[in-house]
Design a protein that fits this description.
By secondary structure, the chain is an alpha+beta fold. The protein has 4 helices and 3 strands. The chain has a 3-stranded antiparallel sheet with strand order 1-3-2, with helices on one face. It is flat. The mean pLDDT is 83.
Length: 92
């Protein structure tokens, strides 16, 4: 509770999913960047990790989200469960 989450990923699916969960739980977004190496001026974020260099997702794009968790989290677990079921049904 009250903590800050940093998500840096090359997966557009994980980035979009996390944004949907943030919206569902009404979390505070501190920073949202959909292309770290093109749009972000932070020298720390521009450092490429070993996995970024591998480009596992094949996107050549790195996404970054920084958001906070409230002291108490609203109970939207049932809505999240339903969302996950719908997402699962979209998989090939």
């Amino acid at each position: 509770p009250g903590g800050v989450i940093h998500l840096k990923t090359d997966s557009p699916d994980l980035y979009k999913f996390t944004k949907q969960v943030i919206d569902l739980y009404n979390l505070e977004v501190i920073e949202d960047c959909d292309d770290v190496h093109q749009k972000n001026s932070s020298p720390v974020l521009k450092i490429k990790t070993h996995y970024e260099a591998l480009d596992i997702a094949g996107t050549n794009t790195i996404f970054y989200l920084r958001f906070t968790l409230p002291l108490t989290l609203a109970d939207h677990d049932e809505a999240l469960y339903e969302f996950l079921k719908q997402t699962e049904n979209l998989q090939p």
